[in-house]
Amino acid sequence: MSIVHTGAFAPAIQLDTPSETGVFAFVRRGRSSRVLMLALSILLMSGVDLYITSLYLATIGMAEENPLARIVMSSGSLGYLSLWKFLTILPTLLLMVAYRRRLMVELLGWVASAVLVGVMMRWAQYADETQDLLIALHDLQAGADHRWMMIPG
């Protein structure tokens, strides 16, 4: 609360409004930059995911659990796969940039980034398991599992 002098008359009492200093102002001021960095990290991790997916599809193949991705991969085109991947993340990135000053967009950006970090960790695990996978590769390429996808280079 502060006292505001309004001239010759008695001072008026004015309630203080929240100031733009302190932790909350810092968090609010930095949000736009953080959301842009989150969008960039989502773009980069999605690119890495596409690159690794393409490597496996063009060499030894891979098991794909996502039925929509399996449909795209069954076209036999890495170009279609790349286009599909781009079209799935483009709306997210555009909305993140357009609404970057909103708290919910930042929170969702953190969630999306965390999911993609999980995908990157899963790729690392998948690469470690490739040794065991190569043993069963012959059977899988023979058509024993309908989820096994491969796009020859």
Strand order of the largest sheet: 1-2
Cα shape: elongated
Fraction of residues in β-strands = 5-15%
Residue share in helix? 55-70%
Helical segment count: 4
Cα end-to-end separation: 72 Å
Give a description of the structure.
With 153 residues, the protein is mainly alpha-helical. It has one domain (30-149). The chain is built from four helices and four strands. A hairpin with a 7-residue loop joins β1 (2-4) and β2 (12-14). α1 (23-58) runs antiparallel to α3 (78-98) and α1 packs parallel to α4 (103-144). The model has no long low-confidence stretch (mean pLDDT 83).
Secondary structure elements and their pairing?
Layout: E1 2-4, E2 12-14, H1 23-58, E3 62-63, H2 67-73, H3 78-98, H4 103-144, E4 148-149
Antiparallel strand pairs: 1-2, 3-4
Helix pairs in contact: 1-3, 1-4
Give the tags.
two-stranded antiparallel ribbon; about 150 residues; about 70% helix; 4 strands; 4 helices; mainly alpha; elongated
Could you give a short description of this structure?
With 153 residues, the protein is mainly α. The chain contains 4 helices and 4 strands. The longest helix is centred in the C-terminal third of the chain and has 42 residues, at 103-144.
